[in-house]
């Protein structure tokens, strides 16, 4: 389910690892998940841009490059962010007949769409339903 929410198994693995080991660097996370470091960095950048992970600079004494360390947002926050989108999609499916102007119990014939071969200059291609009637 987490892979569906985050769009990939790789991103789900990262999220689980960061929930278990918060404030890890990309190198630590790559080693802990078995991902290539470049794959881990790319996925972390995407997750951060989507606000599914937080990052901060690791503080260290002395000179040198302080890497970013990451933590994943709580699962409830992750799900909360998509609930509205899922609800909108479910509403569309639930109300599909209203969008298609189909009345309860009404049966429509399938529509065949034909494309003209270009010989009929000036005439529009016309679709016909299964009964051979024009669908203008």
Q: Hey, roughly how much beta strand do the residues contain?
A: 5-15%
Radius of gyration: 26 Å
Tally of contiguous helical segments: 6
Query: In the CATH scheme, what's the topology name of the largest domain?
Result: Arc Repressor Mutant, subunit A
Task: Domain count, please report it.
Answer: 2
CATH class of the largest domain: Mainly Alpha
Q: Helix coverage percent of residues?
A: 40-55%
Largest sheet: 3 strands, antiparallel
- Rounded mean pLDDT is 80
Helix/sheet category: alpha+beta
Rough shape? Answer: elongated
* Secondary-structure element series: HHEHHEEHHEEE
Number of strands: 6
- The low-pLDDT segments are 121-129
Give me the CATH superfamily of the largest domain.
Answer: Winged helix-like DNA-binding domain superfamily/Winged helix DNA-binding domain
How widely separated are the two ends? 44 Å
CATH architecture of the largest domain: Orthogonal Bundle
Lateral arrangement of strands in the main beta sheet = 1-3-2
Could you list some keywords that capture this structure?
single chain, 136 residues, alpha+beta, three-stranded antiparallel β-sheet, elongated
Structure, described:
The longest helix has 20 residues, at 75-94. 46% of the residues lie in helices and 14% in strands. It has 136 residues and is of the alpha+beta class. α2 (9-20) crosses α3 (26-33) and α3 (26-33) packs across α4. The chain is elongated and about 75 Å long. It folds into two domains: 2-73, Winged helix-like DNA-binding domain superfamily/Winged helix DNA-binding domain (Arc Repressor Mutant, subunit A), CATH 1.10.10; 108-136, no CATH class.
